[in-house]
Write a structure and sequence with these properties.
mainly alpha, Double Clp-N motif, Ribosomal Protein L30, Chain: A, 13 helices, 3 strands, elongated
């Protein structure tokens, strides 16, 4: 309960703000037991920052908390980004006059919890990063030249998107890997729109990838495979999904 009070009722306000915070606290009364250690620490830091500033919890506070996480800063550094500069920009945004949007933070928590609950696991710091999507924190990332999806890909798959250089003249398999954030609908969409699957086959291959963690999409020449993979990656990035798609030798 203490973590929720810190995270969701961070600012010691009064009136409507206090009522809003109490609603958020009640909505997430069960959250601490659903958090892993890294998520709990990030929310504790975010809540402390909000409380110190007498501000309502926002996604900017959550972003600040996440930027204290070594895994996230390592992913930023690996992508040749500066986590210290990003932290400075986040603090500057919190210093500047702004309209507080506590609904965004509540929505982020709901989405993170739903994702974790669907996978029968605890909420992670990666979930919190993933569901900054569309928030003022996400807007700050974009303005700072940081792709939330690129970092999310690194955090979940523990690697950058794999190279798709041609493997000589041999045919290759195009392969998908499962993740916790790309929707089943999107996977079916790209299987049909890019690879020409019908509805039934697309659903079957999507479920195979979901349940087994990996699915072979088909056999292609290296040129065909590269064109299709680049198309899928573009669609995935535009939709905000960290979909892993690559090639494997046959």
């Amino acid at each position: 309960m203490e973590v929720v009070l810190l995270a969701m009722a961070a600012a010691a306000g009064a009136g409507a703000l206090w009522l809003h915070q109490q609603r958020a606290v009640r909505a997430y009364a069960a959250l601490p037991s659903a958090l892993d250690t890294e998520a709990e620490v990030a929310l504790h830091v975010a809540g402390h920052e909000a409380r110190t500033r007498a501000q309502a919890m926002s996604t900017l506070h959550v972003l600040y908390g996440l930027l204290q996480d070594e895994t996230i800063t390592a992913a930023l550094v690996a992508a040749e980004l500066d986590p210290v500069a990003l932290e400075d920009r986040t603090l500057a945004a919190l210093d500047a006059p702004r309209t507080e949007n506590t609904d965004e933070a509540e929505l982020m928590f709901r989405r993170a919890w739903h994702s974790a609950h669907s996978g029968n696991r605890k909420v992670t710091h990666v979930d919190l990063w993933a569901y900054l999507a569309g928030s003022e924190a996400d807007a700050l990332l974009v303005a700072s030249g940081v792709s939330r999806v690129t970092i999310l890909f690194r955090l979940f798959h523990r690697m950058a998107e794999p190279a798709i250089d041609a493997l000589g003249n041999a045919d290759v398999h195009v392969v998908l890997r499962n993740d916790d954030y790309t929707t089943r609908e999107f996977v079916c969409e790209i299987l049909k729109g890019v690879f020409g699957y019908n509805d039934v086959d697309a659903d079957t291959r999507m479920m195979q990838t979901h349940t087994e963690g990996r699915g072979i999409v088909g056999r292609f020449t290296t040129t065909e495979a590269r064109e299709k993979i680049l198309d899928v990656r573009k669609r995935a990035h535009e939709s905000g999904f960290p979909l892993w798609i690559g090639i494997e030798p046959i």
